[in-house]
Write a structure and sequence with these properties.
about 180 residues, 7 helices, 3 domains, rod-shaped, two-stranded antiparallel sheet, single chain, 3-stranded antiparallel beta sheet, mainly alpha
Amino acid sequence: MSIQKKYTGEQNKNSFDKRKGRLDELHYILACKNTFCLISPIYFMHRLKPDVDIVLDILKAVLEAQPLSSFTQSLLHQYQERGGLSKKQLQGLYGKAQKVESIPAGKLATLEAIILKRPTRDKSPLPSSEPLYSKDEETGRMIEAILKKYPQHKRVLFYRSKYDNNEMLPATEMAELQKFFKLLG
């Protein structure tokens, strides 16, 4: 089998993506027995020594020591399917691997270094649940005093509906409400 590069020469809609800013004009063609198959580029994780896989070695060693552990089985399955584990999963594996004495200390140290290299994604604490608007007690008292004397006052009824719906009264409406309250007293 040989891998050849072929220049397509024309841009089709799938090869150019302006949003991502990439242009895939080179396609890899696998030639096998006079049949050409188009293969999309696959991105692999770059490792210094691809034949050494510490995480897989530790997973297999822990699985040998604890064959009934469903946690380790699920981690192995996920590692084989997705090709990696999250930081929390690696920390769980490290905790299990520390209990197994057949795993060399160097591999544990390497796993610990892999865990420390991963970024920590902490959620920020939730903000305190304060109301966005706090009702002004004095405004409420003025509205109630006016409506006690004039219960059908349309403008003050409008202000009370805004006040009850936690809406801010603009300065002009506050001035008008204060004027009504002064005329009352």
